[in-house]
Write a structure and sequence with these properties.
This protein is mainly alpha-helical. The protein contains 17 helices and no strands. The protein folds into 2 domains: 202 residues, Growth Hormone, Chain: A (Up-down Bundle), CATH 1.20.1250; 196 residues, Growth Hormone, Chain: A, CATH 1.20.1250.20.
């Protein structure tokens, strides 16, 4: 490896860059395939195990909840032991737990193991963005981050589609095993491809320093606003996808199979997250997040109209805009946080998944007790918050020049 690559970061066009982005792509595929591997199986598990839908849904909530709780501790450990080491150990152990899932005899044990799997998976999203921020040349960081986010979207899609497809041919345990084997393959690819870290500087971990680093990041107005963007943006996104299926079944008369196919919309996010870097380079970070916020508001509002094809088209645009926004905000975190980057990235992701849990849960009450147009109005209100944040970020970015 050349001295230039070590001193300035891994540059696009080199063999090491190719290995790095494919390793992170595989990490995203494995992580989010594992995180959502039971979601498509919930109706079948409910019937087969004689449990309630709420109990079966805990196999998803346990994983995402424990992931949110463990992101910050995982990032702190990476400050001492290295990003690459945490990535490899975290994903390896999570994949092994995934292979055990089809063998457990009860829903209680399945929920417990899913919680453990989510805790172990936390090491990957907690550290991956920091690894990229430290190792990739700043000029090429947006492109690399976009590919990693694309892996997240495809991994989430595969985590739903692989078991759903296998369920047509076999029992749900075998469908779950098939999904776990896919995660294993991607995990092996990540371990084999990940370049050795060159720019990592270990530091002694103290609770006082870590607390100080977290407080320092929240005191940075731009970072605090990006954390709030993650909370509101992901909360809105999850709320829409949680309850849109009910709308399509009850209002438009679609079957559950066709409603499940709606997750293919994630491919819009796969494309947009890889293109977000080019958009930022062309018009700047501030104008990019403003444009994407406005796009999300407009497309969300269109979903209030009682028309299936318009709803699907608006959903496609909204999904693309959301993942582009997530990619842009993630890349911006790595640029603004010039030190303690692991803590900054982990705090962003903590807010991201807490928003998913809290807002996604609260939106259910609005969906249940109010008409669809009021539900859409609630989500547009949240997105207006994202727009206000984006306008403020753009203003702060101009002042820092």
């Amino acid at each position: 490896m050349s001295t230039a690559i070590i001193s300035q970061g891994i540059e696009r066009g080199t063999r090491t860059y190719t290995r790095a982005v494919f390793a992170m792509l595989a990490a995203g595929l494995a992580t989010f395939n594992g995180l959502y591997c039971t979601q498509a199986l919930l109706p079948t598990m409910t019937q087969d195990l004689g449990i309630t839908p709420t109990q079966s849904a805990l196999t998803v909530s346990a994983a995402t909840g424990m992931l949110a709780l463990c992101i910050v501790p995982a990032s702190i450990l990476s400050e001492k032991f290295g990003r690459g080491r945490v990535l490899i150990i975290s994903l390896t152990l999570a994949v092994l737990v995934g292979l055990i899932l089809p063998l457990v005899p009860s829903i209680t044990m399945l929920i417990a193991l899913r919680g453990l799997q989510g805790a172990l998976l936390a090491g990957t999203p907690a550290v991956a963005m920091t690894w990229l921020s430290e190792e990739i040349h700043p000029r090429d960081l947006g492109h690399a981050m976009g590919i990693y986010i694309a892996g997240n979207t495809v991994g989430g899609l595969m985590g739903r589609m692989i078991p759903a497809g296998l369920l047509e041919l076999t029992h749900w345990q075998n469908a779950l095993l098939g999904s776990s084997i896919a995660a294993l393959i991607f995990g092996v690819l990540m371990v084999c491809l990940l370049p050795r870290q060159q720019r990592f500087q270990p530091k002694n971990i103290t609770l006082r320093h870590e607390f100080s680093a977290m407080v320092s990041h929240w005191r940075n107005p731009r970072l605090a606003l990006l954390f709030a963007t993650a909370f509101l943006g992901m909360g809105t996104f999850v709320s829409l996808y949680n309850y849109l299926g009910f709308r399509m079944i009850e209002q438009f008369g679609l079957s559950e199979v066709l409603v499940g196919a709606v997750f293919i919309m994630y491919l819009a996010g796969t494309w947009s997250s890889t293109q977000a870097g080019a958009l930022r380079e062309k018009i700047g970070n501030g104008p990019t997040v403003i444009f994407l916020s406005l796009t999300m508001i407009a497309s969300m509002a269109l979903m209030g109209i009682n028309n299936l094809w318009l709803t699907l088209a608006a959903l496609f645009v909204f999904t693309a805009a959301f993942f582009a926004l997530h990619s842009s905000a993630s890349g911006w975190i790595g640029i603004i946080a010039i030190k303690d980057r692991a803590e900054a990235s982990s705090m962003y992701l903590f807010c991201y998944y807490v928003g998913s849990s809290v807002i996604g849960w609260f939106s259910g009450f609005i969906f249940t007790h109010l008409p669809w147009i009021a539900f859409i109005g609630w989500l547009v209100f949240l997105l207006c918050g994202v727009l206000v944040i984006s306008l403020t970020l753009a203003k702060l970015a101009r002042q820092s020049i």
